[in-house]
Amino acid sequence: MLKVGVIGVGNAGNQVCALCASKYPEIPVIAINCSENDMKTLPNSVLKFLIGDGRGAGKNREEAKTFLEKSIMQLIADENVKKVLSELDLVFIVSSTGGGTGSGISILLTNIINAASKQYEKPVFPISVGILPTISEALSTQANTLSYLTELYE
Fold first, then answer.
1. How far apart are CA 56 and CA 51, in angstroms?
2. Which residues contact 1 (CB under 8 A, 6 or more apart)?
3. Cβ proximity of 107 and 128 under 8 Å
4. C-alpha distances out from residue 109 to 1, 26, 65, Å
5. pLDDT at position 58
6. Which end of the chain has fewer CB atoms < 10 Å from its terminal CB, N or C?
7. What is the rounded distance in angstroms from the CA atom of residue 57 to the CA atom of residue 34?
8. Distance between CA 151 and CA 92 in Å, rounded?
9. Nearest-5° angle of CA 59, CA 131, CA 123?
10. Are 47 and 132 contacting, i.e. CB atoms less than 8 angstroms apart?
């Protein structure tokens, strides 16, 4: 049987982690966020990794990428993260497509994990999962979704 895990990026992804942790405690989850307040809402069973200044990216995809750039070496070198990823076959990287943190870094993170996990005895296969906004959400949310989908296709 495949061993799967979930990395939730940004608030939407983090809420998926919280739900997964409560319904399927055998599935390992990692929450990554720029917002300390968002992280406080997660149960203790969720492995948390804060990047950036703790105030969030405020729907700014580029700021989220800057936060990841400054924290990526710590993330991939973190012993807890490495342990979780090294035991998996697949990891779903879940985020909103319309926000800042998740939309901005989840595809980039998928590529980084794909490359970094090749050093493991058995590499993990990362799969991006984007949560689309409703059509009635703000224009900035729709624009972020378009940018996310463009990055995905490229």
1. 9
2. none
3. yes
4. 25, 23, 10
5. 87
6. N
7. 6
8. 17
9. 100
10. no
Question: 132 forms bridges with which residues in the sheet?
Answer: none
Report pLDDT digits (tens) over 7-16: 999 999 999 9
Question: Which residues does 108 contact at the CB level (< 8 Å), separation at least 6?
Answer: 65, 68, 151
Q: Which residue has 């936060």 as its token pair?
A: 67
Given a contact cutoff of 8 angstroms between Cβ atoms, the answer to whether 59 and 140 are in contact is yes
Structure tokens, 69: 């750039």
Q: What is d(CA 116, CA 77) in angstroms, rounded to the nearest whole number?
A: 10
At residue 118, the pLDDT reads: 81
Is the pLDDT at 122 greater than 90, yes or no? no
